[in-house]
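User: Hi! I'm working on a homework problem where we have to compare a predicted structure to a textbook description. Could you give me the structure for the chain below?
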Amino acid sequence: MKKVIILSALLISSNILSSCVPIVQGAAAVTTVATMSNDRRTMGEILDDKTLYMNLGNIVSKDSMLEDTHINFNVYNKSVLMVGEVPTDDLKSYLEETVKKRAPKMSQLINEVAVMPNSSYLNRARDGVISVQIEALFLDQEVFHPAHVSVLTERATVYLMGSVTKREAEHATNVASKAKNVKQVVKLFNYLATKPAAEIEKDNKKKEEAEKRAILEAKKAELEAAQNELQQQIYELETN
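Assistant: Happy to help. Predicted structure tokens:
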């Protein structure tokens, strides 16, 4: 009974992570105001990506020809990643043609769909766990904000999307590769020449505030030490 409960929980997590990646994970968390404020896309770009993602999902779910397939999407700045499994090469070609025809607002389509039997629900749950691990690891570093990198895992291959500098991209790749059971990390980034000026200014302010706090803490420690010394002297004088 416990195994069934655990598997059900994993499947719920997998469904959230695998079918709604652009909306819930990383850079496309449009329901979280804090995340949106750190996203490098504009509000309009985020909403465009969300709309495109929902449209792609509808295209697949409402096409009877694609009924026996397993397809996931991730969208960033109208660049679409398509992963999953289809039974034949003809169906893979049909899927790509259909998506291109019915979603013309895409800037590009990256077709990583494999011709093979559909992945099991257990494997999808494991993919969801990998994505959660990576997003947790992204929280425990300071090179980039977690909102800058969107994560999608399919058959233990991790796909990373976002607008980042080369340094941020390499760091994100290294961090993602440390998650358990990851077979491969694929970089699908839009590279920035430099970090946005607004973020640099924000980082500098943070650094200044941290330095001020450190100075205040040091002064506080000095005052406390001086106070303790004076109290000791008073005690000795009173004793004498």
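For your comparison, note the following. Strands lie at 70-76, 79-86, 108-115, 150-154, 157-164, 184-191. Residues 197-239 form the longest helix (43 residues). Good luck with the assignment!
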